[in-house]
Amino acid sequence: MVDPAGVLGIALVALGLVLTPGPNMIYLVSRTLAQGRSAGLVSLLGVAVGFFIYLLGSALGLTALFAVVPFLYETVKLLGAGYLLWLAWQSLRGRGSLFVAQPLAPDSPRRLFTMGLVTNLLNPKIAVLYVSLLPQFIDPTRTHVATQGLILGVVQIAIAVTVNALIVLAAGRIARWLADRPGWLRLQRWLMASVLGALAVRLLADRSRAAALA
């Protein structure tokens, strides 16, 4: 039902985005370093709920819209590729490390969850992912377009939550390890920029779905 190439594509996009510093990572890391792993995991639960809210909205509306109005595909394709290139550039320009403890007042579990949810819902990177990037990995020649969107979205959420959970659990160790190895920060930036740039080129060069929608 789902194109394996689409699953691989969204998996690479999800991995590239989750490893590129953004509002979610900044919030999760800062809370974990300031208040401990449990606080980071509660915050991550809020982030996960935000992902599912985006996914349901996308599956119920956007995927069907692209199947009915094909010319919108090319527009979001260009916007999505441009956004990936911008993220790649931002990755190269990154300076310093997120894994530096900041003095923050402790928050209650309810506030941690709420802030994680709000941070994700207001994260432009995630909004663009569901509005512009995810629908491009749906194969319009296959049936159940909305179901394809749900499956691809679950793949993205599974990768994002798993990687973020690992970051939360290892935030303290990562902070100590990176403090003595600044070269790894540069390597990570170049690796993420390369992945995101390659995905942008792939999206621009892929004409198969555009032909199917025509």
For the residues shown, what is the average pLDDT? 77
**H/E series, N to C?**
HHHHHHHHH
State the separation between the terminal residues, measured CA to CA.
Answer: 21 Å
Give the class from helix and strand content and strand pairing.
mainly alpha
Low-confidence stretches: 210-214
Kindly state the number of beta strands.
0
- Helix residue percentage: over 70%
Question: What summary fits the major beta sheet?
Answer: none
Number of helices, where a helix is a run of at least 4 consecutive DSSP H or I residues: 9
Oligomer: single chain
- Strand-residue proportion: under 5%
Shape: globular
Using the CA coordinates, give the radius of gyration. 18 Å
Question: Which keywords apply here?
Answer:
single chain, 214 residues, mainly alpha, 0% strand, disordered C terminus
Structure summary:
With 214 residues, this protein is mostly helical.
Describe it.
The protein is mainly α and 214 residues long. The chain has nine helices and no strands. Helix 2 packs across helix 7 and helix 4 packs antiparallel against helix 8 (182-205). The protein is globular. The model is unreliable at 210-214 (pLDDT under 50).
